[in-house]
Amino acid sequence: MDINKKTNNSNTKISLYWKCQLIGWSIVSVYWAYTVYTRDNYGIFYTLLNYVLDISIGIFLTHMYRQFALKAKWSSLPIKKLLIRLVPTIILLAILYVIINNLKWYVYWTFIAGEDENIWESIIYWDPILLTGLRLMSIWILAYHLYHYYQKEVVTAKENAQLSLIAKQAQLDNLSAQLNPHFLFNSLNSIKSLVIENPKVARRAIDLLSDLLRSSLYEKDKGLISIKNELALVYDYIELEKMRFEERLQLEITIDKTLNRFKIPTLSIQLLVENAIKHGIDLIVKGGIINLVIKKQQGFIEIIVTNPGKINNKKTIGLGLKNLQERLAIQYKNNADFSLTELNKNEVEAKIKIPFTVNENI
Fold it and tell me: Which residue ranges run through the membrane (predicted)?
């Protein structure tokens, strides 16, 4: 009941657009009402009628333009392309403004005032109405698009601020996931056992751990990273984990190499691989193979990670994956997607779909 009441109340409110239309054209039309009343002796009734018609004409023409502009998505165009379209549009609207007003005056002087007016001469009388039309349409259209440009900038600023906060939270989540006692304990124990047995491999392990910690701290600030650089982090992570899992952990990668320079959210692939190890490989005695596929499919970049295991429906999705979903939604304005599905009883697939755009390339 409360929801319905709120919906009904919101539907009865006049939008900002219509408030501006009514108030703006009402103020503009006052001048013409004063002119016809004092100069042309229209009388009170016909002055008010003319006033209402002037408001209606202005609203009709500009509203028709708004409908067209929304359908053509002009507000999303770059400023230069938009201006090229606005100049002829303003001229066309000004001409229509002249024709409609002249027809209105022709009807009044012919059928109400009883004068013998030629319709064609009335229509082609453009001075000073054309200048008035040009001025009014220019002001309205420029004000309309400036408002939308301002709104778009405000929305973009809010989204960037929100994305920055989520990215910072993602940094903490990722750092927490990688620096959890279990991970550090296993990594340091592996390194400890190698110090005497194989000092060279131990040094390599320390380098890998250092690189991963550095990436967790600093790479996240970049927001986006090329697939090539992201995979370098994944290789380091897998190499370090293989010191613990040995032959139980295998990684197979299939990638369209033309996508190497395409940018994706930082540490997103690493998160999927880590999730596959934690909830898949680690729980299986014999281990298994993690398959990573990166390809372009129907206008999207698909990042697919499959691993042996099952989805525990009793547990909710982890913070890291939730965070990834939020980052994708904001970064790509809900055009990207993340899914976690059970392909069969023994295989799980995590998939990220990101819109492919040339601008994403470095």
Answer: 16-37, 43-61, 82-103, 123-143
